[in-house]
Amino acid sequence: MNGSNITPHILRFIGLVVVQSLLLNQMTDTVGAYFNVLLYPLFILFLPLQMATPYLVLLGFAIGMAVDATVPSWGVHASAGAFSGLMRGLALMPFAPKGGFSAKDPIFAPARMGWQTFINGATLFMVCHIFWYFSVSYFAPVFVGEILKKTLAAWVLTMLFVALYTAMFNPKK
User: Fold this and answer.
1) How many domains does the chain contain in total?
2) Which helix (H) or strand (E) holds 154?
């Protein structure tokens, strides 16, 4: 990630934090506890495929902390962001072409992978993120039913927003 192509990532970071903090988190408070849309993990998903995992973890932690700074979640988003940075490679591995991703595939986006592959990869990535988020949020095995219900509801809503965001902004780099 050199200086010439870092601008889209910075703008995506800022834009997703603003949308998550000012719109989506407020909608959860207004609509109800089962209306959770976590769109900020797209920042991690759309980082370069060749980026090393430690950088993904740090950047995931950074965007999570930025979201946590606007809501009283005390590090839950930071934990989920760091976990997503760690898990991104494993979540996308089943969708890699034979021989793995190459430098000609800069990001995991429909423009590069096709919509079906993108949705499948984004689904696995988001399920990991959302499940971790609610697991850390509740932090007790006694709430496993609630964790699973909220994970399913949030995953469905989030994937609708992921498809809309990706179609609207069509990230290519």
Assistant:
1) 1
2) helix 144-169
